[in-house]
Design a protein that fits this description.
Layout lengths: L1 H18 L17 H4 L2 H14 L2 H6 L1 H12 L11 H21 L5 H22 L4 H17 L5 H19 L11 H22 L4 H20 L2
């Protein structure tokens, strides 16, 4: 009897582990993480500049960070984007141009004794760092969770015509699409809530439609339904 009781939680644990491997089984886990380590490793430096040196007008500390800023900027410039945010590469590169310009201004300002110039340069460097984070960061957790599974479908199952694999995750995808429809945008994006709601509804409906088409086993119809769903997801991303 004791063995049977011990077996139940073990079996339940296995189901949980299997259920959580939907993405990991198909792709390298780093492909579906939107973070770029080289950028986020810079956070401690820019946070100390912005939250401590800047308000305290500690110009010696600001100047002391020039070497660290240069080191981090070199790593950021050489960083590679994870697969899931490759579609943001153009915006990332565009942001890098401005980020590098702000870093150069920071270096030059720290060579002077002009306090306002140094403060302005620190503020600009911080602002450009935050912009780079926003380029990558999903607008909401629900959209991020949907995108993680969509990435697997669009880049793994779809190219390989693995419709059985797609069928095995479609219910999970529908649940994630439903969560997107329940999402309230951050206050700064509230003016876009109505349009977001409409596009989320279209995404959910196209995901439901994909499930129905999968049952037909018609490859061309399935491919078309995948493209429609993917296009509806891109419309959501396009809002931001």
């Amino acid at each position: 009897m004791m063995k049977k009781l011990l077996l139940v939680p073990f079996v339940l644990l296995m189901f949980v582990l299997i259920g959580n491997k939907t993405e990991a089984q198909c792709v390298d886990s780093t492909e579906i993480q939107w973070t770029v380590n080289e950028l986020f490793d810079f956070h401690d430096v820019i946070a100390d500049i912005w939250h401590n040196a800047y308000p305290e007008k500690d110009f010696n500390k600001m100047k002391g960070y020039v070497g660290a800023v240069k080191e981090h900027m070199e790593k950021i410039n050489n960083a590679k984007l994870p697969g899931i945010v490759k579609d943001k590469e153009a915006k990332w590169k565009e942001g890098l141009v401005k980020f590098n310009a702000s870093a150069e201004d920071y270096y030059k300002a720290m060579e002077t004794s002009d306090e306002q110039k140094m403060l302005d340069a620190a503020e600009k460097l911080h602002a450009e760092f935050e912009f780079m984070v926003r380029v990558l960061k999903p607008v909401t957790k629900s959209v991020d969770e949907f995108h993680k599974l969509l990435y697997v479908i669009y880049h793994k199952y779809y190219p390989n015509k693995d419709y059985n694999g797609l069928s095995s995750v479609i219910d999970d995808l529908i649940k994630r699409a439903e969560e997107v429809t329940k999402t309230t945008l951050p206050s700064r994006l509230s003016p876009k809530q109505d349009e977001f709601n409409q596009r989320a509804k279209e995404l959910y409906e196209s995901t439901i439609a994909l499930k129905a088409v999968l049952e037909t086993k018609d490859g061309s119809k399935i491919d078309s339904a995948i493209e429609t769903m993917h296009s509806n997801y891109e419309k959501i991303e396009g809002l931001f």
